[in-house]
Amino acid sequence: MGKDVRQYLHMRLDHLSYAAPTNHLAEVVQRLGSCLGAGFTDGGVHPRFGTRNFVLPLAGGAYLEVVAALDHPAADTAPFGRAVKQRSADGAGWLGWVVEVAEMATVESRLGREAVEGHRRRPDGYDLRWKQIGVNELLENPQLPFFIHWDCEPEERPGYGNGTDIRIIKLEIAGDPAAVAEWLGSLNGSPLDNVEVEWVSPNDGPAGLVAAHFSTPNGVVRVD
Questions:
Q1: How far apart are CA 185 and CA 61, in angstroms?
Q2: Is 204 a member of any domain?
Q3: Which residues constitute the domain of residue 95?
Q4: 3-7: Cβ within 8 A, 24+ apart
Q5: Is residue 208 part of a domain?
Q6: Helix H segments across the chain?
Q7: Is position 169 within any domain?
Q8: How far apart are CA 133 and CA 136, in angstroms?
Q9: Is residue 108 situated within a structural domain?
């Protein structure tokens, strides 16, 4: 087992992204909030990506974002903006899943390129910053997650210390577990800590995140 593989055997699910049409962002946020029994908060604009989001912090430090492309040049040039715009044009829905890494340099070395810096200024004025990599691969192969590393204090992260009872318990992913494991550097078919992954045959549709199961005070909710 090589050094890189050992570092990627266990990964934490950071967040899930759900793409909404630009003109229906508020409606999608309201619908998902109603399904889960909780309210989203305005996350702000991603100026480098040409997108904006609303976020729902979840138990375990993860969060759910609903994101939409803006009428902004970056939405046509930045990979993340293009991914959101493309998913919205394809009918909207799940864009993908994102894993947190402690060392972005290791991922950069594996992929042979530097991560992209991202930021968004929250409504309270705080400038939230991070690095991400792998969105180009998501565009080509939606079953693959991309990677994120937060450049901020833990308490400023979207999923930190919220006290919610809502938790992601399972993902349904249409795709090839071996291909995802190779991308992550994992040796098994369960790439995430504390979240079950059910692999679904992509024969009936495109590869990618199909549905997420949430444990809520009112029972388990499946969002597709």
A1: 23
A2: no
A3: 3-164
A4: 4/106, 4/109, 4/110, 4/185, 5/185, 5/186, 5/187, 7/103, 7/106, 7/185
A5: no
A6: 3-8, 25-36, 74-77, 79-89, 104-111, 135-140, 177-184
A7: no
A8: 8
A9: yes
| Rounded Cα distance, 158 and 54, in Å | 10
By C-alpha distance, which of 175, 165, 105 is closest to 137? Answer: 175
pLDDT grade, residue 13 (50/70/90)? Answer: very high
Higher pLDDT, 8 or 95: 95
Return d(Cα 94, Cα 208) in angstroms, integer: 8
Determine the Cα angle at 79 with ends 78 and 83, to 5°: 120
Question: Cβ(130)–Cβ(181) under 8 Å?
Answer: no
Q: 78 and 84 in contact (C-beta within 8 Å)?
A: no
pTM of the model: 0.92
Q: Token pair 């992204």 is at which residue?
A: 17
Number of domains observed in the structure of the chain: 1
- Per-residue pLDDT band for 4 (boundaries 50, 70, 90) equals very low
What value, to the nearest 5°, has the Cα angle with vertex 127 and ends 121 and 130? 105
Please give the Cα distance from 80 to 95 (Å, whole number): 10
pLDDT at res. 206: 83
Domain CATH for 7? 3.10.180.10
